[in-house]
Amino acid sequence: MRSAEITGWGKCMPPNVLSNHDLEQLVDTSDEWITTRTGIKERRISHVEASELAAVAGLRALAAAGKSPEDVDLLLVATCSGDSIIPSTASVVQKHMQAWNAAAMDLNAACSGFVYGLVVGTNMIRGGTHQTVLLVGTEKLHHLMDFTDRNTCVLFGDGAGAVVLEATDGEIGLLASDLGMDGSVGHILEVPVDGTMGDRGELNPRHCGITMEGQEVFKRAVTKMGESAARSLEKAGIALEDVALLIPHQANVRIIDATARRLGLDEGKVYVNIHSYGNTSAATIPVALTEALEEGRISAGDIVLFAAFGGGLTWGSAVYRWGARTEPLDESDAELPPPDRDTMELLRPNFDFFGLPEKLS
Ligand code: ACO
After folding, report:
1. Do 61 and 325 meet the contact criterion of CB atoms below 8 Å apart?
2. How far apart are alpha carbons 210 and 121 in whole angstroms?
3. Is the CB of 112 under 6 A from ligand 1?
4. What is the pLDDT, as a whole number, of residue 199?
């Protein structure tokens, strides 16, 4: 049966680092609190837009697949912190990459965006309308971070990851998936502005950043990710012991641990890199997948389980059988321009807009 195989992978993490110790200089928090409550040690702050991160990650993924931008016939950009509403971020990424043969669109399922995109891209290939899909998860979340709110400003970071999906007749690729949404509780994690419901005459900075009922999100993330992953495994007819690696959305290491426990999965089979990057929303899974491959954590024929949860509230999971190749075919020389400002200078517009962090005021 025609399916879609991941033939290329890549990431682009901006170089500026914001560590927990840096945050201690801004808000009433501590490295110890952030580490024990979330698992995060540092995150990246981007000096470029999400589209530029996406283009570099995409070019690296294409090189790994031995493909060029002209080969892409569908570009899917999963993001909730893209450059603009019109044109779409996908439009800007197409321009940066010169992927002129690609249809292109954004996909906003927040942190579940990559899993949603994997299902959409695979089914476009299965349906026969497309042959080569570039799926990118990219975020510049620091734009939405209010450093007067210690509940949220320690959690998020910027970055991009990408995969190339190509048509295959092999018994590989997506074996089963499960996607879901509960819009009735969408308000527990939100960024209200940039939509049509805001009153433009009374723009309130409080409505321009990420607000969240952390404990509610936490509880629902553990339940929904676990249930969804179990449903996907059942649909695929794959036993838990046959899963080689779970690559979960990286929002909080305690959510990841609780999800793995709920499933009954050994912690050695769970990929975690949240300590380095924090929550980069749609980018966490493709970045983690790229690093897992680089570290030799995935072998030919392995069953990889993806699971995510995010704003909406969305969730999704996918059971994927890896193909024969775990090494890139080629390397791209695509790079970001070097930053011209340090991390604190990059955060200055946030301080000006949302207000000075407690320790700077
Ligand atoms: N530093 C120090 N103390 C803090 C901080 C901080 N950065 N943030 C909150 N606290 C305080 C609170 O004020 C509270 O103090 P109080 O008891 O005096 O009122 C105390 O710590 C405990 O707060 P809780 O909210 O109970 O802490 P909790 O253990 O639930 O952890 C957290 C908070 C990390 C936000 C957790 O709830 C969580 O991870 N939730 C899920 C968040 C998430 O994953 N969101 C994104 C998912 S969707 C997406 O990715 C878009």
Report:
1. no
2. 28
3. no
4. 64
Q: How far is C-alpha 331 from the geometric centre of its chain's CA atoms?
A: 22
* pLDDT band, very low/low/confident/very high, at 237 (cuts 50, 70, 90): very high
The pairing of strands 74-78 and 132-140 is parallel
pTM attached to this predicted model? 0.96
Q: Which atom of ligand 1 is nearest to the CA of 310?
A: 48
pLDDT, residue 166, reads 98
Q: What is the structure's pLDDT at 194?
A: 65
Residues 175-321: name the CATH superfamily: Thiolase/Chalcone synthase (3.40.47.10)
Q: What is the mean pLDDT of residues 60-70?
A: 98
Architecture of domain 3-171+328-354: 3-Layer(aba) Sandwich (3.40)
C-beta of residue 253 within 8 angstroms of C-beta of residue 155:
no
The answer to whether domain 3-171+328-354 and domain 175-321 are alike in fold is yes
Interval between CA 76 and ligand 1 midpoint (Å): 32
Task: Tell me the average pLDDT of the chain.
Answer: 95
Taking a C-beta distance cutoff of 8 angstroms, is the pair 77, 93 a contact? yes
Q: Which two tokens stand for residue 114?
A: 């990559």
- The domains of the chain are located at 3-171+328-354, 175-321
Question: Is 249 annotated as catalytic?
Answer: yes
Q: CA nearest 360: which of 151, 149, 148? A: 148
